[in-house]
Amino acid sequence: MYKTKQRPSKRTSNFKRNSNGNRRRKNNTSNSIDINKFISQAATPEKKEIYQVTNKFSDFPLQPDLITKITGRGYNSPTEIQDKSINHILAGKDVVGIAGTGTGKTGAFLIPIINRLLTDPRYFDTLIITPTRELALQIEDEFKKLTKATKLYSTTLIGGVNMTKSLAAISRPAHIVIGTPGRIMDMAQRGKLAFGKFPVLILDEFDRMLDMGFIRDVEHIISQMSSRRQTLLFSATMPASQEKVINKIIPNPVKVRASSALKSSSNVDQNVVSVSEGEDKFDRLVSVIADDGEKESRVILFCETKRKANRLAKKLNVRGIPSDEIHGNKSQPARERALKKFKTGQIRVLVATDVMARGIDVTDVSMVINYEVPKTYDDYIHRIGRTGRAGKTGKAVTFIN
């Protein structure tokens, strides 16, 4: 049984401008997080509010081959955000979609974009910008699965990949280009990517993009998109401070919101572990992981810094708990290897920093552990969104001192 202690945390966060004018995170703000928000039992199926979809995929005006591919992957009915947005996107409208993690946002924008490309396969049609490499790779993977044998092609441009490979990739015609802002800007500055070619822009996980200080890059890219006719912006949250920025990018969008947006997952048992003064925090961590049960279970451990992630992974391996770490200082191949080992069960614990909180898409994560209290409640929601996915129940544990 976890020992809980309900008291407010002083760990808070906000942002300040760096030398380039971008926002970056600093350590202290006036906002506080109520520890009570980290304590919640998963709802029973009878208590859950279930959104009633109004369509099946076969009800949308989609190409038969695309419907076959979607249903072949086991999806007959759309998720709430898909049900509310697909028809608007098919109609060519600008859309702002707000939905929590694991709610099908990728499918919400890819399905209608692919449907149009099947009938009008123009090169450099859609530019998709994401805040993290992992998210870009997930979108690419989903695109390939939905376009197999259709002769529709994608190019992915992300940091951590050898520049020669990126240059080779962008030299080949593609229907959609997916990437992180830094590498996309690199290609443009080298004269290899002309933003004016793209009529469609998709901004995914936009709130995280702002948090990571990418707004200047995004604004520059948008200013160069002279042929832009449709813009889709998806985000897990939309605080009031970001509405003005979004309204500037998309003045009159259709706004759709999933009922799960901004809420902690009802599929997740949430609790705290109180560490007393003088108590070994790492020993408590090992006990919590051991209490998770089966050795085959998967645990994501979030911590504050890259250095701490490295140290925790090493100490867990010494204790006989197979672990690896994933953070911004790891090369892209190393990050992909760690994530693959986690998905295939070669390691039990994946230690990550917040940069990875929205880039880890593994269906059967049994538990998320916050080794420190997250800086913001939004960070907390995105972290615990890694568990309790696909209708399963997960656990979230937050350490407090």
Structure description:
There is one protein chain. The strands form 3 sheets. The chain has a 7-stranded parallel β-sheet. The protein is globular, with a radius of gyration of 21 Å. The chain has 401 residues and is an alpha/beta fold. It is built from 13 helices and 15 strands. The model is unreliable at 1-31 and 44-48 (pLDDT under 50). It folds into 2 domains: 14-46 and 266-400, Rossmann fold; 57-257, Rossmann fold (3-Layer(aba) Sandwich), CATH 3.40.50.300.
Describe the structure concisely for a colleague:
With 401 residues, the chain is α/β, with parallel strands linked by helices.
Give the helices and strands as they follow along the chain.
EEHHEHEHEHEHEHHEHEEHEHEHEEHE
Q: Uncertain regions: pLDDT < 50 for 5+ in a row?
A: 1-31, 44-48
Strand order of the largest sheet: 5-6-4-7-8-3-9
Shape: globular
**Residue fraction in strands:** 15-25%
* Total number of helices: 13
**Distance linking N and C termini:** 17 Å
Q: Using the coordinates shown, work out and report the CATH topology of the largest domain.
A: Rossmann fold
Q: In angstroms, what is the radius of gyration?
A: 21 Å
- By CATH, the superfamily of the largest domain comes out as P-loop containing nucleotide triphosphate hydrolases
Average pLDDT value? 83
